[in-house]
Write a structure and sequence with these properties.
This protein is an alpha/beta fold and 424 residues long. The chain has 15 helices and 13 strands. The longest helix has 25 residues. The chain is globular, with a radius of gyration of 22 Å. It binds manganese (II) ion. The site of manganese (II) ion has 5 residues, from loops.
Length: 424
Amino acid sequence: MQVEKYSIDNYNEGLLNDHKRRLDYTVSTITNAEKIIAKLKEFQVAIPSWALGTGGTRFGRFSGGGEPRNLEEKIEDIGLLHKLNQSSGAISLHIPWDIPENASHIKALAAQNGLRFDAMNSNTFQDQPDQALSYKFGSLQNVNKAVRQQAIDHNIEVIKYGVELGSTSLTVWLSDGSCFPGQLNFREAFQHTLAGLQEIYKALPDDWKIFVEYKAFEPNFYSTTVGDWGQSYLYASKLGPKAYTLVDLGHHLPNANIEQIVSLLLMEEKLGGFHFNDSKYGDDDLTAGSIKPYQLFLIFNELVEGMDAKGMDHVTDMGWMIDASHNVKDPLEDLLQSVEAIMLSYAQALSVDRKALKEAQQNNDVVAAQEILQNTFRTDLRSLVAEARLRAGGVLDPVGFFRNEKVRAKLIKNRGAKTVATGL
Ligand SMILES: [Mn+2]
């Protein structure tokens, strides 16, 4: 769906006075507003191709209307998000759900929408209709060599699709593991998986990275073969310099200290990718920042501090992506909310007084350290995020605009009320 520049300008015009008043106040309360706005303008979060439709659970899926019917329409939806927030300028493809049949056409369409191709995602956690061998008992870990080879071949095929589109990274998430004690020899499962990843690693072009994503549990409930950041780090270290760990916020056991995990991975230069979502219990895949916004800020605080310590580029040296499911909300509104929460946490992390925090740490001044972090967290920086969006040509209030323009109703009119996007 096309959104015209004049409708964005008209909408912004009505909100401008209020916005300026809030912005002036915020700028007067912090020291580095211009620097933060400049950083926010650059920062981009990739949207996965499977996030545009309604998500479901094993109990059911309640599809909404106007869902994208093919890859072209998914690209158009992400293009729309990017037009509104100017911070969703990348798409992450899942193979085989979204195979680009005509790569040059897909590449051109993405470029028209201001999008680049982020990490490619392989899938060896499901069986496809035309697949020769089953992944029921795992893919790269499988006791059957032919199954392992099939999974290796699939990942190499995904790299080939990515090369055609100009992507430069592959995310591998394996559901491999076991459901019952005794089912697996842990060491053998690890070694098979490592050997498979090594074959995939060999197929990576020189400028590519591979991200090894871990997950504590589900669909396997007794053991997971890439179950935590330690195991992922072990694979990534053994694979070589192009291999990195990917942290998905939902893939930890309850109460894990994710901020500490990202800090240490950055120290070892092994954090390569990041998936945003939020959860109350496990891998709930809820809107980023909807349940634990303070934790999201604390994680960003470590990301910014750790990346700066290594001289990393916040935009290009990490694969940032939303990995959430939208079971009850309009997926596009939900994604706008997630990106907003991510940008706000990033802005807050950029405004932490690092010198004062360092001093508090050196003096063991625990109270001062808490004051610094919580004062920053409680300072309302939403107007900075809006200002960055405005300067980049976006909308002051993306969700408000989406509703005002009746975007979903228009998508239903164009695509139909009973469309179901590919995905889980
Ligand atoms: Mn993920």
